Amino acid sequence: MRTLAAAMSVFSMALAGCASHAKAVASSTQPAALSVPQTQVTLPPPQPLNPDALATEDPVAPQAPAVTPAVTPTPAPPVRRPPRTPVVAAPSAPPPVERPAIQAIIPAQEQKRLKDSADARKKEVRAALAKIHDQDLAQRIQFFLSQSDQAELRGDMTQADVFAQRAQDLARGGQ
Q: What is the value of pTM for the model shown?
């Protein structure tokens, strides 16, 4: 029995040595903690509040000199100020200048071709517009015709032709 007890104690010592060695190896392979949890919070001491710091000044009435009473003062009622009047811009300010739109430079011959194309399309659309009974479609076609006319007034013949083509496509589809 004695030999068994001696063998067990030797065996347990050997295991204890392995366990401490395993802990040492495990602790050396783990990365260091990035932060330490803060469990105790230390706040600074409370600071006294000066009641005069909260008082507001009335810009119209002069203030009486401050007297420090021996007793805690009661808070002063809020100061009522007149409502702010909105600032209105001077009527003499000139209106903003409207700049002309940026357009591509198109040769005169191409401008004339686009104008003729737009005019021919608009003529065809206006003739077809009388035959269209759908009021919604007629309004959409009329919109594109007016956009084409406005683009022509601006001198943008490319846009005038594009809008006339859209009106033409709608008119052909509605017949």
A: 0.43
